[in-house]
Design brief:
Elements (H helix, E strand, L loop, with lengths): L1 E6 L2 E6 L6 H8 L18 E4 L2 E4 L12 E3 L12 H8 L9 H16 L18 H7 L10 H12 L1
Parallel strand pairs: 1-5
Antiparallel strand pairs: 1-2, 3-4, 3-5
Length: about 160
């Protein structure tokens, strides 16, 4: 199927198999290898990207459903040579070890902060009628779909908290 994908503010005319996932399209056809194939079942979050500003697991999204939607990958977060504030926060707080999960963690954190700013409560929000507070518990709950095998969670939470607050 012929599509026009909008990825990181660039247009890509592309032909894809109707069974192809966005993750495979990004990595194998467009050479955008930031999103990682971890579990390929939507359980680890290593493949997280932003779709119209909301986080999705690209291993679960069929590319044919994304014609004319805005996709942002980790490669599109920086502004030229200036890293996104979350990228700078991850570096400052050493919020990664092997780095395999980092692209998904970054995209998920950006989507999570947008959800928080929109006032969406989480499972641990004490009062769903009040403005949620971005404490460490909120960050941990909201980022729980992204796994880190190295266990860098403490520094990830600190980096997101610094930027989000």
């Amino acid at each position: 199927m012929d599509l026009r994908l909008s990825i990181n503010r660039e247009q890509y005319p592309i032909t894809v198999d109707t069974r192809e996932t966005l993750l495979d399209t990004l990595r194998e056809q467009l050479d955008l290898t930031g999103a990682k194939k971890g579990c390929d079942h939507g359980q680890c979050g290593a493949c997280t990207v932003l779709l119209d500003g909301r986080r999705i697991k690209s291993c679960l999204a069929l590319t044919v459903t994304l014609d004319d939607r805005e996709i942002t990958t980790v490669e599109g977060l920086a502004d030229g040579d200036t890293p996104h504030p979350l990228q700078a926060g991850f570096i400052e707080h050493d919020a990664f070890q092997c780095g395999y999960c980092t692209p998904g963690q970054l995209c998920s954190a950006i989507g999570m902060l947008a959800e928080f700013e929109a006032g969406w409560p989480s499972v641990v929000t004490p009062d769903v009628n009040a403005e949620p507070e971005l404490d460490d518990g909120e960050i941990r709950e909201r980022m729980s779909g992204n796994l880190c095998r190295c266990g860098a969670y403490g520094n990830i939470v600190t980096a997101i908290g610094q930027v989000g607050r």
